[in-house]
Amino acid sequence: MLKPPERDPVKRPLRNLAALSGIAIEMGVIIYLAARGGMWLDAHFQMEKRLFTALCTLVGVGVSLWVVLRQIRRIRY
After folding, report:
1. Phi, psi at 76, each rounded to 5°
2. What is the dihedral of CA 6, 11, 17, 23, to 10 degrees?
3. pLDDT tens, residue by residue, 26-56
4. 37: CB partners within 8 A, 6+ apart
5. Residue 46: C-alpha distances to residues 41, 49, 51, 53, 55 (Å)
6. Closest alpha carbon to 64 in 21, 34, 36
7. Contacts of 61 (CB under 8 A, 6+ apart)
């Protein structure tokens, strides 16, 4: 019978590190794009107060936290 390939214990921490750094980049991009979308909406509707910017940024933070929590569940220690 064939034995399943053994996992290298050194590769697991490196994969976790790569995944965590990717998560940070994703978080930043999601929040940045949400804020830029809010700025565009404020300019498009000619709002004096930055209501759409604040609202979209908060939504972006919520979405990025949801994405982070989903990806953290996949990481194995």
Report:
1. -110, 135
2. -50
3. 999 999 999 999 999 999 999 999 999 999 9
4. 56
5. 8, 9, 11, 12, 16
6. 34
7. 31, 34
DSSP-derived 3-state class of residue 29: helix
**SS3 (DSSP) at 58:** helix
Cβ 75 vs Cβ 16: under 8 Å: yes
Whether pTM exceeds 0.85: no
Crossing angle of helices 51-74 and 11-44, rounded to 10°: 160
* Segment 11-23, tens digit of pLDDT: 677 888 888 889 9
Tokens of 1: 């019978």
